[in-house]
Amino acid sequence: MRMIKLEAVILAGVLCVVFLLWNVYNPLPNDDAATHRSSSNPVQLLAKATPGHERSPAFAGRSLYLWGDCHRNQSAANVTGFSALPGYLQNFLYYQHCKHFPLLLDLPLKCGGAARSSDVFLLLVIKSSPGNYERRQVLRETWAEERVHRGARIRRVFISGTTGSGFEKLQLNKLLELEHRRHGDILQWDFEDSFFNLTLKQVLFLEWMEDCCPRAHFLLNGDDDIFAHTGNMVDFLKGHDSGQHLFVGHLIENVGPIRERGSKYFVPVQVQTSESYPPYCGGGGYLLSGHTAAVIYNVSKSVALHPIDDVFMGICLAGAGLRPVSHMGVRTAGLHIPSPKVNPHNPCYFKDVLLVHRFLPHQIYIMWEQVHNPALRCWNN
Ligand SMILES: *[C@@H]1O[C@H](CO)[C@@H](O)[C@H](O)[C@H]1NC(C)=O
Ligand SMILES: *[C@@H]1O[C@H](CO)[C@@H](O)[C@H](O)[C@H]1NC(C)=O
Ligand SMILES: *[C@@H]1O[C@H](CO)[C@@H](O)[C@H](O)[C@H]1NC(C)=O
Ligand SMILES: *[C@@H]1O[C@H](CO)[C@@H](O)[C@H](O)[C@H]1NC(C)=O
Questions:
Q1: 23 Cβ partners below 8 Å, 6+ apart?
Q2: How deeply is 121 buried, as exposed, middle or buried, from its count of CB atoms within 10 A (0-12, 13-18, 19+)?
Q3: Is 208 helix (H, G, I), strand (E, B) or coil?
């Protein structure tokens, strides 16, 4: 009798451990048995389950985690006119030199490990603030679903910082941790997720990519409120070589910093003296090759952070002697619908685009269903 009880206790214990591990390990969509194999390495499982700064020995070699707190640059306050700047710009100048922050939630096996990351054709890199749970949830079920489209593997990561303070911050961090566990698609760093820190987020992502996903062929870099036709993107990208330069989107040229204090994009002379920006693509979303991502990351190490993230990408491209180009299918400024009388959400306008900016979560959900409806009839068919 005693023996049976003991066995039952042991069995229950084993089941518990198995259950815990199973929960911790977020399975990738099962289109690839090999990715599953490599992600079930127990050492990595445990490392993945440990958010925070301490890393398991398996990861001690990764420099990403070894950066301490970055201190504010007090001399920034000595710049002429500093005290008259809005607080967020003062903060930007105080912390402009800080390019490394600790990773709170990591996905070391998102691409099957660095060596196998060439299996990933299109990596969707979506900027998302912690509170945007509904947006992430809709994207997971629509255009950002991890899948294989015409033989091309699509993977998804949301990139995030922290927001709020005190209890609210803890709650939002908990939310991301739960999503990370359940969906395996959150990268989070310990910095304030604000508009003027988007460039920092971008650079931290490129740093992660070099480490964990260096051979992914192409990236979609975008916001969490876009409608991205990821199927069309794959078709478009298949005609390109990921080892060559590619950077396409909604091209913006011959513009410079906005000097009006009230604007969201206000960039004072204390941040940039020059009156012009190099050509860049609107930050709602753009496509780039793995090659170009690596070049931009390399250049970013020696360039001062610019508060506007899409402009910063343009600055890095220019630094490497490269140019972004325009693609008609990328409409980060919205879609021009010919007449106010027609339904602006007619799926026929969207079935051939690559990307359109500013959709509400429910609109994305509806549009994704509609453009994939085989019964959809448009003018040209
Ligand atoms: C700021 O400028 C003042 C005077 O020019 C100088 O005494 C001080 O050391 C400077 N502070 C920093 C932190 O550089
Ligand atoms: C700190 O700010 C001053 C004034 O803008 C600048 O000259 C200096 O290079 C900055 N230091 C660092 C470490 O970025
Ligand atoms: C960027 O994040 C750092 C670290 O959290 C923070 O100190 C700084 O104020 C933020 N900068 C802006 C402009 O929000
Ligand atoms: C990285 O940038 C440095 C200069 O900033 C350049 O010398 C080097 O060739 C670049 N490396 C790559 C791989 O692009």
A1: 181
A2: buried
A3: helix
**Could you give the angle at which helices 309-319 and 290-300 cross, rounded to 10 degrees?**
90
Between the two ends of the chain, the Cα-to-Cα distance in Å is 75
Nearest to 140 by CA among 103, 173, 186, 107: 186
More confident residue, 6 or 373: 373
Please give the share of the chain, as a percent, with pLDDT higher than 90: 74
| Unique residue bearing structure tokens 């972004």 | 324
Q: Is 194 in the pocket of ligand 3 (CB under 6 A)?
A: yes
Q: Whose CA is nearest to atom 11 of ligand 1?
A: 75
Global pTM reads 0.84
Distance (Å) from CA 93 to ligand 1 centroid: 15
75 lines ligand 1 (CB under 6 A): yes
202/99 Cα distance (integer angstroms) = 10
Write down the residue that tokens 């990861």 correspond to.
59
| Ligand 4 atom 1, closest CA | 298
pLDDT, residue 6, reads: 55
Nearest protein CA to atom 9 of ligand 3, as residue: 91
Residue ranges around ligand 4 (CB below 6 Å)? 295, 298, 302
CA dist 364 and 357 (Å) reads 11
Q: Which atom of ligand 2 is nearest to the CA of 78?
A: 4
pLDDT in tens, 333-344: 777 776 777 787
Ligand 3 pocket residue status of 197, Cβ below 6 Å: yes
**Residues in contact with 67: Cβ distance below 8 Å, sequence separation at least 6, in sequence order:** 100, 101, 102
Closest ligand 3 atom number to CA of residue 92: 13
Angle at CA of residue 269, ends 265 and 270, nearest 5°: 100
